[in-house]
Amino acid sequence: MASGRLSAETITSDGHEAFAADVEPGDVIGEAFAFERCDTPFEVVADEASEAWCFEARDFAAAFERHPAFAKAVVRAMCRRQCRTLQRMSEVMTLPMAGRLEAELLRLAACDPSGRTIGRLPTHRQIASRIATQREAVTKELSRLERQGAIRKERHGLRLVGPSWNP
């Protein structure tokens, strides 16, 4: 991934979309398909204007084997994604939905220099997929946060307001 931001989702056995990963500059996505036959349904969507490099599976595997610097960069990208995935898994296992939503809002706001503005808020369905809950629960909790004055809607996004959002 050269620039921008992507989201990767998979489809569960019962047909539901499940968030898999954010893809940021420097990340690699789909590398498993270069090495193994992988039948898992997988969809990657651009969340903003993005630029990415695409490789044929055989070319990717060959570059991985022939160029140690390339292989090292790929492994580092995979490790970064694994760390983010483990963080999300621990949140799903230990935090109530409201806590997972707050953690996700902080992650989304981290893209902004102030760390408090989400320029383009994903849909409630997309947020629900990211935090393993239902869209209705996200809508209800965002409304509660707005009533409390913890968030303020701004155009297509929102702003985190108040000291409770300090990292």
From TrEMBL:
<dbReference type="InterPro" id="IPR012318">
    <property type="entry name" value="HTH_CRP"/>
</dbReference>
<dbReference type="GO" id="GO:0005829">
    <property type="term" value="C:cytosol"/>
</dbReference>
<dbReference type="Pfam" id="PF13545">
    <property type="entry name" value="HTH_Crp_2"/>
</dbReference>
<keyword id="KW-0805">Transcription regulation</keyword>
<keyword id="KW-0238">DNA-binding</keyword>
<keyword id="KW-0804">Transcription</keyword>
<dbReference type="InterPro" id="IPR000595">
    <property type="entry name" value="cNMP-bd_dom"/>
</dbReference>
<feature type="domain" description="HTH crp-type">
    <location>
        <begin position="100"/>
        <end position="160"/>
    </location>
</feature>
<dbReference type="InterPro" id="IPR018490">
    <property type="entry name" value="cNMP-bd_dom_sf"/>
</dbReference>
<dbReference type="InterPro" id="IPR014710">
    <property type="entry name" value="RmlC-like_jellyroll"/>
</dbReference>
<dbReference type="Pfam" id="PF00027">
    <property type="entry name" value="cNMP_binding"/>
</dbReference>
<dbReference type="GO" id="GO:0003677">
    <property type="term" value="F:DNA binding"/>
</dbReference>
<dbReference type="InterPro" id="IPR036390">
    <property type="entry name" value="WH_DNA-bd_sf"/>
</dbReference>
<dbReference type="InterPro" id="IPR050397">
    <property type="entry name" value="Env_Response_Regulators"/>
</dbReference>
<dbReference type="GO" id="GO:0003700">
    <property type="term" value="F:DNA-binding transcription factor activity"/>
</dbReference>
<feature type="domain" description="Cyclic nucleotide-binding">
    <location>
        <begin position="2"/>
        <end position="67"/>
    </location>
</feature>
<protein>
    <submittedName>
        <fullName>Crp/Fnr family transcriptional regulator</fullName>
    </submittedName>
</protein>
